[in-house]
Amino acid sequence: MIKIFIDGAEGTTGLVIRDRLKDYQGIEIITLPEELRKDVTARTEAMNQANLVFLCLPDAAAKEAVTFITNPNTIVIDTSTAHRTNDEWTYGFAELTGQKDKIKKAKRIANPGCHASGFIALVAPLVEAGIIDKSEFLSAFSITGYTGGGKKMIAEYEGDCPELYKAPRQYGLTQAHKHIPEMLKFCSLTTKPCFCPIVANYPRGMEVTVSLSQRKDGVGIEQIKQVYKNYYKGKMVYFNDQADENGFLSAKALEYKDSLEVSVHGNDQNILLVARFDNLGKGASGAAIQNMNLVLGFDEVKGLNV
Q1: Residue 54 belongs to what H/E stretch?
Q2: CATH assignment of 2-112+284-296, among 1.10.10.10, 3.40.1190.20, 3.40.50.720, 3.40.50.261
Q3: Which of 15, 92, 107, 170 shows the smallest number of beta carbons within 10 Å?
Q4: Active site amino acids
């Protein structure tokens, strides 16, 4: 029996992970009584009993929780930002070249950020192919449903919603969004992108767009499409050449899915790279379950809606 403990099981990501695990055979979820949910001694005991721990905590709490684990066999999947650029942790975006094998052998796995997942899915293959230069200045915007903001934001939107919340709201205005460091590192970029995240008045779904100007070497939109077709062969991330919905692209298109869709639009002068997925799916808990499946030897898409 594989024992799993979710530290932070009452948070948005933790609740979705727990729901995904309920139909697994051979898995036991270690559950603490409500009065012990934040008790350090009880949490420490649970984590060291577990074969695998999901950390669904704020960054500082996640860093602290790791120090409680002394069992060398306990695998940790951290869904916070805390360890994503830490070289001692394996980055949990399995679709990057060679990353799946690293995840399978890892004891410490850092789940990617939601916005970062879309950006990396679009940019990393083109940097690897030499179509985007590592020093190129990129611009990206990303629209997300409000569930990505956690319980507090969900309560704000689903309660007595202020009038200004009824239209999309841009944030990260200081250009210091916490996902930017992993975007840089895992796309091998040396120039910080201009990144514009936007939250809108709908629950789930995300759409990340990166714009490219005409390529100096004459590479056009069809060559870029071919790179994605060759790069993404699995079920979790795929290229869709027919993503246009009568001139529109809805950020809700992959709501409740765990996969991520890549598409290319525009023309050879102005190219739009678009990634669509569920911010709680491939952007959070879906990716965490995918990483769990890989490290525990299950089928990669077990328990996932692809």
Answers
A1: strand 52-55
A2: 3.40.50.720
A3: 170
A4: 114
